[in-house]
């Protein structure tokens, strides 16, 4: 027992022995205190107590406290349900191709809304531009049109993740027992709860629209409804009570990783692919068209290897005690994380590990016929753990790479980019395990002449 606990313990023992003398004094003071209160003060006190008890009970009941109070908040929200993973990765009847096709159809509108019509060089916040573009595109895939164009969706996509990450950092800096209190105090948590509840304002009309479309289809009417993940969930998940009650969380779990699908740039190859295969989706479906961009693929891999969003991934949570063959014991509740950025300094994993080589993966694929389907962007490997590893690796990785290729190839085809004269590649910011691109970074953009 440390000195502080010992002192406290001694005081308790002393108090215990004096209990008989102290109890009447406490009773008397408490009665005096209650008598001194006005009726309004009593009402306020009772309301506070009632609010504290009911809100605590409600949160503990549906796991809310665990979800939003856990210091590894991201992990607990993520591991709640298999439904989003199924909606993203279930590929019967070429479901992924259908989502990508829906996304492609939104591209022109999204570019028109978010990319400035710059005839001459102007400076832009490129991260914000990409973030908004992606919010629109993944919105088409998750909630469909018109929800993906609504201000509510754009607000959710733009702000949910930043509050989520900030809140989870703050929570991690304080002891767990303070979480229930802190969750009421910090503005990020309040905004998260409000936005999470507000997701129903986005999804309720989607559900109604989908139900109406189904009914009309049954009557043999032609319906214009493109594939989206919410509709897939409504059609394919048996427990509809669960789905309707938790649709807000399911949507957020799909949105957060999808909307932060960021990566940088290439040009001649893009022109060549456009020349040979037409515009994206014109002669070839998007899913096949994007595979033609092999240099861009290798570029993404190289860029991601050195600029991953998380320094520690994959993360696994021990749901029971585990003893490995070499008798290493992992207790229930432990969180295991791999230092994914280790590959950036280990030459056994990647020769000249610190060097950015956009052709690294492309070169490897040319070495032998059996290598040509390996080393592609989105394939987890020891060199690149950006998408995690193993059976639980990111289910949206192929979608992410396809959307990135579509967006970047269009931007590079139609626009030129450069740093302003006094700027160079922005530095990453390291905050706990999060690796954040410099939020102040800007780029110059103009339409290609
Ligand atoms: C560049 C973009 C992306 C990156 C870097 C990324 C990264 C990751 C990582 C590291 C994980 C954890 C994997 C593990 O534990 O082994 C993950 C999980 C996940 N990702 Fe992605 N992701 C991206 C895009 C997407 C997209 C576009 C979607 C949805 C369409 C998506 C949906 C998910 C979901 C639902 C999980 C949780 C899977 C689970 O709980 O087992 N991600 N992602």
From TrEMBL:
Coiled coil: none annotated. One of its GO terms (molecular function) is monooxygenase activity. It holds the Pfam family p450. Its cofactor is heme. This is Cytochrome P450, putative. Belongs to the cytochrome P450 family. InterPro entries: Cyt_P450 (IPR001128), Cyt_P450_E_grp-IV (IPR002403), Cyt_P450_sf (IPR036396).
């Amino acid at each position: 027992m440390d000195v502080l606990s010992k002192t406290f313990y001694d005081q308790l023992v002393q108090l215990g022995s004096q209990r008989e003398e102290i109890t009447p004094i406490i009773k008397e003071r408490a009665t005096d205190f209650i008598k001194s209160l006005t009726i309004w003060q009593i009402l306020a006190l009772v309301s506070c107590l009632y609010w504290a008890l009911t809100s605590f009970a409600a949160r503990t009941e549906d796991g809310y406290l665990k979800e939003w109070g856990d210091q590894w908040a991201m992990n607990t929200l993520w591991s709640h349900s298999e439904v989003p993973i199924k909606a993203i990765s279930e590929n019967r009847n070429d479901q992924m191709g259908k989502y990508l096709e829906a996304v492609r159809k939104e591209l022109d509108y999204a570019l028109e809304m978010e990319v400035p019509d710059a005839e001459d060089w102007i400076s832009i916040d490129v991260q914000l531009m990409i973030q908004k573009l992606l919010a629109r595109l993944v919105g088409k895939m998750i909630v469909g049109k018109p929800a993906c164009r609504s201000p509510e969706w754009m607000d959710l996509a733009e702000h949910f993740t930043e509050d989520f990450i900030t809140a989870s950092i703050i929570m991690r800096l304080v002891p767990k027992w303070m979480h229930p209190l802190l969750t009421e105090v910090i503005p990020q948590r309040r905004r998260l709860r409000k936005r999470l509840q507000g997701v129903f304002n986005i999804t309720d009309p989607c559900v109604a629209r989908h139900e109406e479309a189904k009914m009309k289809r049954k009557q043999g009417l032609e319906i214009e409804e493109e594939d989206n993940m919410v509709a897939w969930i409504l059609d394919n998940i048996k427990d509809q009570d669960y789905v309707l009650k938790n649709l807000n969380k399911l949507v957020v779990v799909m949105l957060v990783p999808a909307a932060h699908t960021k990566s940088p740039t290439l040009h001649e190859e893009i022109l060549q692919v456009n020349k040979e295969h037409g515009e994206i989706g014109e002669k070839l479906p998007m899913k096949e068209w994007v595979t033609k961009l092999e240099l861009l693929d290798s570029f993404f891999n190289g860029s991601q290897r050195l600029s991953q969003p998380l320094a520690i991934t994959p993360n696994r949570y021990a749901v029971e005690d585990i003893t490995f063959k070499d008798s290493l014991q992992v207790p229930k509740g432990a969180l295991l994380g791999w230092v994914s950025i280790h590959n950036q300094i280990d030459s056994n994993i990647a020769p000249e590990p610190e060097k950015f080589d956009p052709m690294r993966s492309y070169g490897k694929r040319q070495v032998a016929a059996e290598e040509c389907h390996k080393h592609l962007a989105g394939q987890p490997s020891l060199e690149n753990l950006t998408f995690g590893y193993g059976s639980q690796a990111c289910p949206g990785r192929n979608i992410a790479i396809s959307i990135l290729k579509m967006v970047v190839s269009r931007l590079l085809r139609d626009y030129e980019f450069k740093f302003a004269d006094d700027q160079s590649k922005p530095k990453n910011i390291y905050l706990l395990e999060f690796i954040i691109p410099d939020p102040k970074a800007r780029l110059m953009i103009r339409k290609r002449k």
